[in-house]
């Protein structure tokens, strides 16, 4: 895909500030993450961890956030792609005088789980003719609050330090200081010529270590080897998955995104790479998603395990045990990527917000909410893990028993539900079904493992939940499940009932529920989470992409292949040219909204693609069997 981009001035200003969300590419190293615009600008980057304060944050504050832009100075068009089976981004600029390819990545290496390089490489290569290039490098630490002090160590070797953060900046072309806080460069590239920039995160206490060679630092001298090592790392990981079928490329790309959102040292998985990208303009629906939600993470590891990436499942299981200190009574619905529990939600005054839509938030108050369905998700993880031959040890079994006991005690209480409603708690049907699933799978696990459990008490609670859902959580007049007890509204979370084991996909009640959701909650083929005005928040959010894929998966499992394919293609069709999905999509404006890239969107897309592939194969097999 090629797009026209206007010329950029040396100061980094553009014809139209704040690119659309879909204009960004994503790079990461399972520690840190960054977003890079079509115009070659790193406008969002958090190091040393994905949930750390930003080093570059222009995405949320055009004037104060900081950026690193490397691009041609004359007008150009852009095409871009990821190198095959990797998260190495290639952007090709075409000008009237020639073409240049910019390769961006976080460098990866074996053993990087505990000893990451924390390095971004930006490699510009002349492909044809001659192209004038410009670099503008403006680090702004701590969400734009700190203009770092930049010092020269060598010809093109600098350090930038401010507060608790530091960068080591190296290049093989001349860099010039622009005041005390910024660096710039101008140079030209002809066919066959290369220019490399390296950005490495270093703690300030390590910045004064003497460089190995001020004029030829190691990160520049080894950039080609590090790039190849990074490509090999990603391709080796991707090759572990058994992705086949018509949607294999899309599945692999989404799997790579999910892996990149993981925190390698701990096993945690971030919900998204950003904070505060608005779900709706001007109404404050801006949340920080750079944390590990229990539910989303379980979805992710089970999805990756089904594709053949089983190591991630055990890593997250151990993360949960550590984060809860082995006690289900201490469960939160989300944690910091290191297992942090205190995630106080605070505004960041230095940043105005994406396109002026503040506030920008750090932390998420949802960590204080109660959401009962997570008990079912944790038992689902244990159940699927046991079916792969990984039985829980004594300590893990004790944790699981506590988790099921929590479900047995809590199911009668209201909660905030899957969507984290910020009003009064309700008796959400999806949450009740999550408790039912915890009890049902707890009983099944105990039987399969010959483990002791309070069987009678669990079985009684499980049966009571089913009876309550089938009476108070079901509308007999329409023949559909509803969002909450004794209320008529629908909720796309009901599409998850079969995955919880509460009903089968082809249960007539589930078929009617899916039909009603498609009819009442869909907008231009994309599905909303629930009816407008149902969440006690102002404004109209976009359609929720995960819900569209849930509908596609549900329809595929019901054998309704044409409808499932239409829903899947509609959801897939709003991915950007790199195959990346945001949290939501504004169908009226035709634009992405919400945090980006969003893990739940990608893992739901994988599940829908797999279900659709299986349904199409089943129909083909059935037709062949019927043929004379």
Mean of residue pLDDT?
92
Largest sheet properties? 16 strands, antiparallel
Low-confidence stretches: 1-15
Could you tell me the number of beta strands? 27
Q: Round the Cα radius of gyration to an integer and report it.
A: 25 Å
Top CATH class of the domain at 2-206: Mainly Beta
Query: In which range does the helix fraction lie?
Result: 25-40%
| SS content category | alpha+beta
Named CATH topology of the domain at 2-206: Beta-galactosidase, Chain A, domain 5
* Oligomeric state of the chains in view: single chain
Portion in beta strands: 15-25%
| CATH homologous superfamily annotation of the domain at 2-206 | putative glycoside hydrolase family protein from bacillus halodurans
Describe this structure in words.
The protein is α+β, with helices and mostly antiparallel strands. The protein has a domain of 205 residues: putative glycoside hydrolase family protein from bacillus halodurans (Beta-galactosidase, Chain A, domain 5), CATH 2.70.98. Helix content is 32%, strand content 21%. It contains 14 helices and 27 strands. It has a 16-stranded antiparallel sheet that branches. The chain has a three-stranded antiparallel sheet with strand order 25-26-27. The protein has a two-stranded antiparallel ribbon with strand order 17-18. Strand 4 and strand 5 form a beta hairpin. The chain is globular and about 75 Å long. The N terminus is likely disordered.
């Amino acid at each position: 895909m090629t797009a026209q981009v206007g010329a950029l001035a040396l100061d980094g200003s553009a014809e139209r500030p704040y690119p659309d969300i879909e204009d960004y590419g994503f790079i990461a190293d399972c520690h840190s993450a960054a977003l890079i615009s079509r115009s070659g600008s790193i406008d969002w980057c958090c190091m040393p961890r994905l949930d750390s304060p930003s080093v570059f944050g222009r995405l949320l504050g055009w004037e104060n956030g900081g950026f690193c832009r490397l691009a041609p100075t004359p007008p150009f068009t852009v095409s871009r792609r990821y190198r095959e089976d990797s998260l190495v981004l290639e952007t090709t600029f075409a000008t009237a005088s020639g073409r240049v390819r910019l390769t961006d990545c976080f460098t990866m290496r074996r053993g990087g789980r505990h000893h990451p390089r924390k390095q971004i490489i930006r490699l510009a290569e002349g492909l044809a003719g001659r192209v004038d290039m410009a670099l503008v490098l403006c680090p702004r630490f701590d969400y734009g609050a700190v203009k770092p002090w930049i010092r020269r160590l060598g010809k093109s070797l600098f350090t930038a330090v401010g507060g608790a953060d530091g960068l080591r900046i190296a290049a093989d072309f001349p860099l010039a200081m622009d005041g005390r806080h910024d660096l710039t460069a101008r140079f030209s590239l002809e066919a066959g010529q290369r220019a490399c920039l390296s950005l490495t995160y270093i703690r300030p206490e390590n910045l004064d270590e003497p460089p190995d060679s001020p004029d030829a630092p190691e990160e520049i001298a080894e950039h080609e080897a590090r790039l190849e090592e990074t490509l090999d790392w990603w391709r080796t990981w991707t090759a572990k998955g058994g992705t086949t079928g018509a949607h294999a490329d899309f599945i692999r790309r989404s799997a790579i995104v999910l892996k990149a959102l993981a925190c390698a040292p701990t096993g945690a998985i971030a919900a998204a790479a950003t904070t505060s990208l608005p779900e709706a303009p001007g109404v404050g629906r801006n949340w920080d998603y750079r944390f590990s939600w229990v539910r989303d993470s379980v979805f992710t590891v089970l999805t990756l395990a089904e594709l053949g990436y089983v190591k991630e499942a055990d890593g997250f299981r151990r993360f949960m045990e550590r984060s809860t200190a082995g006690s289900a009574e201490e469960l939160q619905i989300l944690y910091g990527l290191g297992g942090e529990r205190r995630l106080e939600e605070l505004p960041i005054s230095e940043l105005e917000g994406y396109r002026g839509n503040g506030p920008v938030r750090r932390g998420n108050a949802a960590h204080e909410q109660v959401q009962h369905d997570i008990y079912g998700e944790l038992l689902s993880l244990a159940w699927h893990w046991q079916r792969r031959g990984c039985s829980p040890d004594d300590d893990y079994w004790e944790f699981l028993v506590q988790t099921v006991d929590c479900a047995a005690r809590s199911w009668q209480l209201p909660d905030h539900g899957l969507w984290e409603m910020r009003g009064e708690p309700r008796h959400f049907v999806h949450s009740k079904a999550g408790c039912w699933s915890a009890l049902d799978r707890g009983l099944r696990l105990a039987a399969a493992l010959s483990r002791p459990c309070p069987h009678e008490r669990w079985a009684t609670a499980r049966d009571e939940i089913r009876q309550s859902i089938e009476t108070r959580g079901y509308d007999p007049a329409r023949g559909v499940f509803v969002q909450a007890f004794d209320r008529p509204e629908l909720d796309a979370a009901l599409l998850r009932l079969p995955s919880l084991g509460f009903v089968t996909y082809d249960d007539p009640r589930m078929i009617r529920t899916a039909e009603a959701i498609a009819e009442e909650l869909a907008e231009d083929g994309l599905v909303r989470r629930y009816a407008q005005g149902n969440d006690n928040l102002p404004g109209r959010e976009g359609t929720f992409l995960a819900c569209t894929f849930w509908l596609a998966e549900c329809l595929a499992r019901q054998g309704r292949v044409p409808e499932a394919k239409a829903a899947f293609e509609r959801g897939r069709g709003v991915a950007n040219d790199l195959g990346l999905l945001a949290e939501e999509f504004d169908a009226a404006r035709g634009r992405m909204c919400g945090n980006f890239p969003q893990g739940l969107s990608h893992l739901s897309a994988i599940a829908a693609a797999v279900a659709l592939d299986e349904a199409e194969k089943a129909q083909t097999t059935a037709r062949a069997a019927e043929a004379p």
